[in-house]
Amino acid sequence: MNLAIPTPDIRRRSVTGLWLRHAVSFVRYWKFVITWVLIEPVIILVAVGFGVGKLIDEVDGAPSYAEFVTPGLIMGNAMFHALFETSWNAYNRIDNDVYETALTTPITITEITMGDILWAVTRSIMTVVGTATVAALFGWLSHWEAIGIIIPAVMVGITFGALGFLFSAVAPHTTFLTLVFTLVASPMFFFSGSFFPISILPDWVEPIAWFMPLTSAVHIARGFALGSLDITHLWAALYMIVLTAIIWPAAIFLLRRRLIK
Amino acid sequence: MTNESQQNREVTLNPDGSVIKSEDIRKIYGDVAAVDGISFAVEPGETYGLLGPNGAGKTTTMRMLAGLSPTNSGAITVSGIDVVKDNRAVREIMGVVTQHDGLDGGLTVFQNLFLHGFLAGLSRKDSKNRSHEVLEFFGLRDRSKSNVYELSGGMKRRLAIARSMMTSPSVIVMDEPSTGLDPQSRNRVWEELAVLKDAGVTVLLSTHYMEEATILCDRLSVMDHGKILDEGTPDQMIERHAPKEVAQLRVSPVSIRTVRGYLTEHNITFREVGALISVTGANGDRPDLSGLKNLDGVRTSYRAGNLEDVFLAITGRELRDG
User: Fold this and answer.
1) Cβ of B78 under 8 Å from any chain A Cβ?
2) Single pTM value for the model
3) Residue among B246, B253, B267, B216 at smallest CA distance from B310
4) Can you tell me the ipTM of this complex?
5) What is the pLDDT tens value at each position of chain A, 261 positions in all?
6) Which residue from B69, B91, B107 is facing A25, i.e. has the nearest CB?
7) Which of A11, A14, A25, A103 should one mutate to test binding to chain B, selecting the residue with the greatest count of B CBs within 10 A?
8) What are the DSSP calls for chain A, one per residue?
9) Across the interface, which of B91, B102, B115 has its CB nearest the CB of A17?
10) Which residues in chain B are contacts of A100 at CB distance < 8 A?
């Protein structure tokens, strides 16, 4: 069909094919990747929960600091995974002409981002489920609603998966990708209410913190973890969806500019 | 493909009977026309070459034909598909070997093929079977489980060509199929391409190797600065543009000035390429070099005119200058 308005013409095979590629590659190197999916987040969880937690009695409606920090840490870690997949890994796929090769088959740029973001979501879910299970064993995720953390895990995979492409699509070299971590990931990791409630930040910092999409994700995850969901969690979810609706098309635009010369 | 030559390829033709047709296509980057109005047609079963130095616009032309890059103007038809309108459809039917091998380092040799076949539209079962077939044909069967970075340059290139064969396409474009390969690997690639040709596959290739163009191409175009300068069979091109014979002088440094002086004095055209002086006689005949006979340190040999000479004659430049 040749209509003036481009119709969303998504070929499922392209998306599953790319997802399969990432899964196969992941399985080949699982011994190395698993350290990041599971071992590292558990180390941080234990250090913060048992270590720092011992110094703090109670915080913002959570029965213990460990229970407060758990959903935050889990989401922060999920963010790192999603970002890494579509910034660092995607950059390597651009640089090694893996996408170029894929494009010689009937695949589109939109489908490439879909396959890769689907994999970012998968990684996010893997690390969230793994870490949350360990946290639950420690008794830090005690509410049955905590199972719902899978929802912000998916959202983090999508939003940050799309966001990572904004960097890989314009990166002239791998050093440029340092910016993903210095400008995006680290500030969000520490200022998204993972470690402390953002309400204790100075008044002028608080809106900036809410602007960061991880803040919304942590807020939603904590709502599930502590069984304290209310309307604010819905707003947070809407904010992430709106933000993604801007970032993803931008990612497709930039990636197209990079790959279709 | 255990025996590729026994396989008969059905190919859909354009209305005019060609398989690939390019009409006045243009590609402009900034104010530079990388491809500046190129027209040619490739007939079914033919191997057609674009011969030219780096930067002539060969890669850009091929990328546009393969539906990987939009045109600024002009028309492209491949097997009846309007590529400008529907680049996805052409990517369904065409095998493409890109300039860089574009192999996936995260996957094994087999997985590279399998994934490509799957993305190209084969079922999992078919893609698996076909991967084994092409590995067999390209002599890479025992490398099936290797990481691609463990392969030699020649093997990587052959794997990239094997990948383009996953869907048994009847039309393939290859960007510089043997660039950067050692002579042995190059010969092997050429042998394998000859088998595909026997099977009736239509091939469009780009090259800046005179030898590759001579051996593989039924017809070719000489390209420079985004334009086609002339087109024909290798023999026609040589007949049209190259001298019948070229004398090649290897001259020791002590005699070089004497030789240059002699040639200039007798109005004999010559050019120096590396340590060689190539001399062409008037009207393309054997040049008279009798005056150099008794000079020490000069070895003279004669060769027939070739596509390098064609390129030089048409563009005034050496093919290898890039």
Assistant:
1) no
2) 0.89
3) B246
4) 0.89
5) 444 544 568 899 999 999 999 999 999 888 887 887 788 888 888 888 888 877 787 777 788 888 999 999 999 999 999 999 999 999 999 999 999 999 999 999 999 999 999 999 999 999 999 999 999 998 899 888 899 999 999 999 999 999 999 999 999 999 999 999 999 999 999 999 888 888 888 999 889 999 999 999 999 999 999 999 999 999 999 999 999 999 999 999 999 999 998
6) B107
7) A103
8) ---SSPP----HHHHHHHHHHHHHHHHHTHHHHHIIIIIHHHHHHHIIIIIGGGG---BTTBSSHHHHHHHHHHHHHHHHHHHHIIIIIHHHHHHTTHHHHHTTSS--HHHHHHHHHHHHHHHHHHHHHHHHHHHHHTTS--SGGGGGGHHHHHHHHHHHHHHHHHHHTT-SSGGGGHHIIIIIIHHHHHHSSSSS-GGGS-TTTHHHHHHSHHHHHHHHHHHHHTT---HHHHHHHHHHHHHHHHHHHHHHHHHHHHH--
9) B115
10) 68, 98, 100, 102
Sheet holding B81-82, edge to edge: B32-42, B20-29, B73-78, B81-82
The dihedrals phi and psi of B247, each to the nearest 5 degrees, come to -90, 135
Of A21, A97, A104, the CB nearest to B100: A97
| Residue B167, min C-alpha distance to chain A (Å) | 10
Q: Which of residues 13-52 of A touch B (CB under 8 A)?
A: 13-14, 17-18, 20-21, 24-25, 28-29
A vs B: CB pairs below 8 A: 79
Q: Which residue from B minimizes the CA distance to A98? A: B102
